[in-house]
Write a structure and sequence with these properties.
Blueprint lengths: L1 H11 L11 E11 L2 H10 L1 H6 L2 E9 L5 E8 L2 H9 L1 H10 L1 E18 L4 E9 L2 H10 L1 H6 L4 E7 L2 E11 L2 H9 L1 H10 L1 E12 L3
Antiparallel strand pairs: 1-3, 1-4, 2-3, 2-8, 4-6, 5-7, 5-8, 6-7
Helix pairs in contact: 2-5, 6-9
Amino acid sequence: MKAFLVACALALGLTAMAAPADAAGVQLIVRHSVTDYAAWRKVYNSFNVTQKKMGVTRQSVYRSIDDPNDVTVLHDFATLDAARAFVASDELKTAMQSAGVKGMPQIWITREAPGSNGHEGKVRLFVQHVVANYADWRKVYVGFAPTRKKLGVLGQAVYWQVDNANNVVATHDFASADKAKAFVASDDLRTAMQSAGVKGMPQMWYTRRALK
């Protein structure tokens, strides 16, 4: 539980930064490891009524293709206050405990940057990284669009953390895991990340949407 409280504190943020001007929407992204997906899903489904009561307007669940108990959940909210209240709620903490969440979940409260396009594929690649400057990174990312398409990206979206605009999560959809892994291994992506000012080692994980 202490680990969860630490994650909540990080997600709520202690220092606000200037936000990009092209902000829209509020999305909560949670990545966590669970003891057993089937048991977790039962609790998650039963929590649906409480989610709606607490302001969740839309949700989706993704499972890692390499570890089915590595779960990423996206929740949409109408306001930033609603998202922060949900993260801090006793209801969420109790549900996570009951569902068998292991260790400290990773939690990002984000806004979606306009410019998302394409359609959902069979595999979704999540990329989380810290960049030197969001505006500079964004220019390179937009310029990389033709190469992304050439490398098999069917759809994409970008989210930036509300309390640190340089902490970015991008999603890319592909027709297959092989195409997603080829994209990650490409020299084109490596060069683009270097040019865009990505700092340190990005997190990348391959998922499929879980409908039940």
